[in-house]
Amino acid sequence: MTISGDLERARHLAFRADEDAAKDLLLSLVPRIEQEDRDDLLMEVYAQLGEIYLVRTAYDGVEECMRRIRDCLAIYSAILAGLMPEAAEQVTMSDAEVRHMVCRYTRRAQFLETGLAAAHGDHEAAEAALLRLTDDTAAFPDLSEEHRYLIVHAQILCAIALCDDDLHVRSVPLWERVIDAIQRVRSDSESDDYLLVTGATCYGRFCVETGRLSEAEPWLRRAGARAQVRGWDLATSRTQLERATAAWTAGDRPQAQTLVHEAYPAIAEHARAHDVSRCWLYFGLIAISVGALDDADERLSHAERHWREISKPLHIHRILLQRSWVDIFRGDFAAAVERVAQARELLDSWPRHSWLQYARLDDHLGNIWRADALADPDRAATKLEQAAELKVPAALAVDSVRHTIADADARMRWATYVSAPILAGAFAVAWEWGNTELVSELVEYHSARGSFSTEPHAQPADWSATATAAVPVDTADDYALVAAGPPLEGGGALTRLGPLPPLRMDPTAPPIISRYRTLAFERYGRDVTADESPWSTWP
Predict the structure, then answer these.
(1) Do 67 and 59 contact (CB within 8 A), yes or no?
(2) Sign of the dihedral through C-alpha 7, 12, 15, 21
(3) Does the residue 447 lie in any domain?
(4) Cα–Cα distance between 118 and 134 in angstroms, integer?
(5) Which InterPro entries match (predicted)?
(6) Is the Cβ–Cβ distance between 324 and 295 less than 8 Å?
(7) How many other C-beta atoms are found inside a 10 Å radius of the C-beta of residue 524?
(8) Predicted local confidence at residue 83, as pLDDT
(9) Is the pTM of this model over 0.70?
C-alpha cells in the first residue's frame, strides 16, 4: 500500500478508537517518508499522532508533535520569505504548493494547541487558540472541508472541557455552533460521522447534566445508531453510558443498571480513564442503592483511582463525597467527615471553584451531622443544631437562584434538580431537631415563593455574553441560564421574577430566618432576600 493509503488507513483506525494500531502504523511510516524526503507527509504523521495522544491524555506527546510540525513550518515560512536561499534551492515544490502545505499544517497544529489548552483546563487560552483557528481565512478551496472539520472538532473539545469544570454556561455558545454544524452536514463521510457521533454524544451529556433529559435522549440515540452503522463499538458504548446517566437522573435505576453494564466492556477494553471512572461511579451508586456497601466502596475506590491518574480534581472531590455516603451508612461518621475535608481541600486548590460547589459540600457535611445525631439520641439536639447551621444557609443560598430565573421551564428544572433536594434536607433537619419556629419560618419562606416586578431592569447575561468572558462564570444565576433559553422580551407586563423582600411573621419580632440569611451571605455571597421593606405575613 502507498504511504498516502496507509495514512488514510491510520485515520480510519483512529475514528474507530483503535489508537494503538493507528499509532503503530503511523510510526512505521516515518522511515519510508524520511527516505522519500516528504516533509508534508511527515507533518501529516505528526498531526495524526498528536490527535491520538490528545485522545489518550498523553499530553507530552501532543506537545512534541506540535513542536515538530511548527519547526518544519518555520523553515518553509522562512523560505517563502526569502530568508533561506540555500534551503530554497533544495525545495522541489512550487511556491503555491509550499503555501498550501504551510496553511494546512498550521491549522492542524493550531487544532492541537486548542485541544491541549482545553484539556489542561486553560479555557481562556483554548478560546484564543480556537479564535485563531476559526479566523484563518487563507483561500485554498480544497482545504475548506478539513478546516470546517478542525473547527467543529475543536469546538467540541472546548465545550467538553468547560463542562468538566462545571462551566456549563460558557459552553453553551460552543454547543450551539456544534449542533448547527452537525445539522447542516449532508455528507456521509467518515469524518462527518465522527463529528456527529462525538458531538451528539457529548451534547447529550451536557443536556443530562443541565436537566434537559427530554432533549438528551434523541441526540444520544441518533449518535448511537450512527456509531453502530459504522461499527464503532466504543462510541456506541459511550452513548449507552450517557443514556444510563439520564436514566439514573430520572430515577429509573433498572434501566441505568442495564445500560451501564452494557457500556462497560467496550469502555474498559479501550481504557478511556474518564469514561471508565464514570462507569465505576454508577456501579458504586447502584450498589449503594441496594445496600451492598462493601461492593459500593470498592467500586467507588476504582473510580477515584482512575480520576487521580488523570488529575481531575473536581471529579475526585465529587467521588469523595459519594464515598462518604458509604461511611455514613456504616456509621463511621469520623471517616465521612475526613472525606469531606479532603474534598474541601481539593476545592480550595482549584482556581475555578464556585460558591455553589461549597454550598453543596456544606449541605453534605450537614447530612453527616444529621445522620450522626439520629444514631446518638443523647446528643441528637446538639448535632442537629450543627446540621441546621450547615444545611439551612446552603439551602437558602441555592434556592434563592430560583427567584432569578424568568423562564418557567428553567425555573422548574433548577428547583427539581438543584434546590429541591437541598431545601428538603433543611426542612427535615429542622423538623428532627424539634425547632418548630424554624420549621414554620421555612414554610413561610417557601410558600411566599417570589415577587414579580414591572420595573425596567437589566437582563441577566445572555448566552453570547459568556462566550468571551475573561473569568469563569461561577454564579448560580448564570449557571441557571443554561436551561433558561433566550432572555424574555417585555414591556409593561410582569417581566421579572425577583427575590423575596424580608418576611416578618410577628410584628414584634425581626424578619424570619435572619441569622441563616446572614450566614448564606457570609459563606456564599448570596442575598437571599431583596433589599426592600419587609413584608408582613400576618393577617
Answers:
(1) no
(2) negative
(3) yes
(4) 16
(5) TPR-like_helical_dom_sf
(6) no
(7) 23
(8) 84
(9) yes
Does residue 401 contact residue 410 with C-beta atoms inside 8 Å? no
The pLDDT value given to residue 539: 61
Tell me if residue 478 falls in helix, strand or coil: helix
pLDDT at 492 over 60: no
Assess if residue 511 is contained within a domain: yes
Task: Compute the distance between CA of residue 416 and CA of residue 226 in angstroms, rounded to an integer.
Answer: 33
H or E, element range at 357: helix 355-374
Our count of domains for the chain comes to 1
* 3-class secondary structure, 74: helix
Cell of 408: 418557567
Q: What's the per-residue H, E or C state across 228-253? A: HHHCCHHHHHHHHHHHHHHHHHCCCH
- CA atoms of 161 and 422, how far apart (whole Å): 27
Q: Could you tell me if residue 162 is inside a domain?
A: no
Within a domain: 474 = yes
What long-range pairs does 436-444 form, CB within 8 A, spacing at least 24? 438/388, 438/392, 438/513, 440/505, 441/505, 441/512, 441/513, 442/392, 442/513, 444/503, 444/505, 444/512, 444/537
The model's confidence at residue 461, banded by pLDDT at 50, 70 and 90, is: very low
Segment 370-381 shows an average pLDDT of 95
pLDDT digits (tens, 9 = 90+) for 218-232: 999 999 999 999 999
pLDDT attached to residue 538: 66
* Mean pLDDT of all residues in 63-78: 95
- Percent of the chain at pLDDT exceeding 70: 90
449/445 Cα distance (integer angstroms): 7
Structural domain boundaries, residue 499: 354-539
Looking only at the bridges linking them, the beta strands covering 451-453 and 503-504 are unpaired
pLDDT in tens, 2-44: 999 999 999 999 999 999 999 999 999 999 999 998 999 999 9
* pLDDT above 70: residue 507: yes
- Mean pLDDT in the chain? 88
Backbone angles phi, psi at 452, to 5 degrees: -100, 155
Spatial distance between the Cα atoms of 319 and 351, rounded to a whole number of angstroms: 19
For 457, the 3-state DSSP assignment is coil
For residue 498, pLDDT beyond 70:
no
218 phi and psi angles, rounded to 5 deg: -65, -35
> Do 419 and 401 touch, CB atoms closer than 8 A?
yes
> What's the rounded Cα separation, in Å, for the pair 209 and 202?
11
d(CA 221, CA 45): 34
* CA–CA gap between residue 440 and residue 431 (Å, rounded): 10
Cell digits of residue 32: 519510508
